Each structure stands twice: as C-alpha cells, then as structure tokens.
C-alpha cells in the first residue's frame, strides 16, 4: 500500500495510527485484519522501528484479498 508507506515516511511511527489510516484508505472493503509485525518473530509491534511487515486481509464482495508490505525497508 503506497499510501500507507507515504504516511510512514512522513513521520508516523504509531502502529495504531498507521492501521487507522490503512482502514480509511481501504474503506468500503470489509477488513478481516491489519497487523504491523516484526518480520522475524511475527509479533505485533506498537511502533515502527526499522523493518516492519504490514499484513492485510480484506473482502471485496466475496473475494478475499491478501497483501503485505514492508515499512522501513528503504530506510535501513
């Protein structure tokens, strides 16, 4: 999600704020989950601190969409 990467690059580090922005961008699809996790442990993170995976699953109608992107990848 390029928009979410832009939010991160503009200085937002809070997982909660990044997830809320992603939800707004994805509206009106039905979101199953949006998680920001450590790429090694897959544990949730509260703040983006280096390489962090954003994983998303959502439904557009009956079609389940799955996507992920790495935040912080270009900045290490």
What is the CATH homologous superfamily assignment? Pantoate-beta-alanine ligase, C-terminal domain
User: For the record, what CATH class applies?
Assistant: Alpha Beta
Second CATH tier, the architecture? 2-Layer Sandwich
What string gives the helices and strands in order? HHEEE
- CATH topology category name: Pantoate--beta-alanine Ligase, Chain: A,domain 2
Total DSSP E strands: 3
Kindly estimate the percentage of residues that lie in beta strands according to DSSP: 25-35%
**Helix content, binned percent:** 25-40%
Shape: globular
Describe the protein.
The protein is an alpha+beta fold. The protein has one domain: Pantoate-beta-alanine ligase, C-terminal domain (Pantoate--beta-alanine Ligase, Chain: A,domain 2, 2-Layer Sandwich), CATH 3.30.1300. Helices cover 26% and strands 34% of the residues. The chain contains two helices and three strands, in the order ααβββ. The chain has helices at 2-9, 15-26; strands spanning 30-37, 52-60, 63-71. Strand 2 (52-60) and strand 3 form a beta hairpin. Helix 1 (2-9) packs antiparallel against helix 2 (15-26). The mean pLDDT is 92.
Report a brief summary of the structure.
Helix content is 26%, strand content 34%. With 76 residues, it is α+β, with helices and mostly antiparallel strands.
Which characteristics define this entry?
alpha+beta; Pantoate--beta-alanine Ligase, Chain: A,domain 2; 2 helices; 34% strand
Q: What is the topology?
A:
Layout: H1 2-9, H2 15-26, E1 30-37, E2 52-60, E3 63-71
Antiparallel strand pairs: 1-2, 2-3
């Amino acid at each position: 999600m390029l928009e979410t990467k832009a939010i991160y690059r503009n200085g937002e580090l809070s997982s909660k704020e990044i997830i809320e922005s992603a939800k707004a961008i994805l509206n009106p699809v039905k979101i199953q989950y949006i998680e920001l996790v450590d790429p090694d442990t897959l544990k949730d993170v509260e703040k983006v601190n280096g390489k962090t995976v954003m994983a998303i699953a959502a439904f557009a109608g009956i079609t389940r969409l799955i996507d992920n992107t790495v935040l912080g990848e270009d900045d290490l």
